[in-house]
Amino acid sequence: MAHEETVYDALDHAHGGEGQWAFGTGFDDPLAGVDTTIPDGVDAADLGAYCLMLGDDALVLCQRLTEWATRAPELEEEVAIANCGLDLLGQARLLLARAGSCGVLGRSRQHATDSIPDEDALAYFRDPDEFVNHQLVEADGGDFAQTMVRLLVASTARLALFVRLRESRDPVVSAIAAKGVPELTYHRDHAARWVLRLGDGTAESHRRAQAAVDAVWPLTADLFTATDVERRLVEQGVAVDPAPTRDEVRDVLTMVLERATLTVPAWPADRPSPGRAGEHTDELAPLLATLQGLAREHPAATW
């Protein structure tokens, strides 16, 4: 009887029959075809740190969105949330790969085998205090309304940055931003439609939407104060200062909330982001434990 190839055989044959590390080895270089030369006058450590900030925001929010798999209110929404998560995962992979190419690996490489790609080492083998994401993306998702309000805020703020980052002097950051703009536009618009639907819906959906806004709004305080790394890179034409995007972001969010018949809370005073300094809420550690558990349990696993 002829051997019938299984899906597992096909996966193995795709890489010449060699066992592949379970968390990434054997897949295409995410930066293949992109000029990775660091621009003249730009400090590699600063560039790597900046990409880590943007990459961690995407990775952590992606993980939060995956918590809604099988829990969304509609089957179509399962697909939509998954697509948003996959977009963010793609951005995270590119940005973490760029950070790795700049030498920003730290303790993550000490805990990972040499065969593990840089982006996987950074995703799976850093501890919570080594992550530099905003606290906005790590906060518990709450109910569906809170998840949509958080996605609206996060995607609006990130889109404002990415539109400007398309002009970055770093070719990798510029390419990632150009790819990310249409993705983030969809994320923002999708979340906005849900906030409108919930806010201007039933009494119960309105109540939940307002509670979601009230819970998320204090976390916007962290979004518009640049770190020292960002300031240096802004001067070199690589990064974007988030402060000038403040009014644009607030105008979009105010417009959506008012059309949704929701009350816009008072805007909190801007402050340096604790997350950018590695200071996180208690909610990040269990989230990362879920994300990193398999890789840490079997750091050299192959399939």
UniProtKB/TrEMBL annotation:
MF terms in GO: phenylacetyl-CoA 1,2-epoxidase activity
SUPFAM superfamilies, per the entry: Ferritin-like
UniProt feature coiled coil, ranges: none
Enzyme class: oxidoreductase
Origin: domain of life: Bacteria
Protein EC: 1.14.13.149
Alphabetical keyword list: Oxidoreductase
InterPro entries in UniProt: Aromatic_CoA_ox/epox, Ferritin-like, Ferritin-like_SF, PaaA_PaaC, PaaC
One Pfam family, short name: PaaA_PaaC
UniProt keyword annotation of Oxidoreductase present: yes
PANTHER family in the cross-refs: 1,2-PHENYLACETYL-COA EPOXIDASE, SUBUNIT C (PTHR30458:SF0), PHENYLACETIC ACID DEGRADATION PROTEIN PAA (PTHR30458)
UniProt-recorded name of the protein: 1,2-phenylacetyl-CoA epoxidase subunit PaaC
Encoding gene (name): paaC
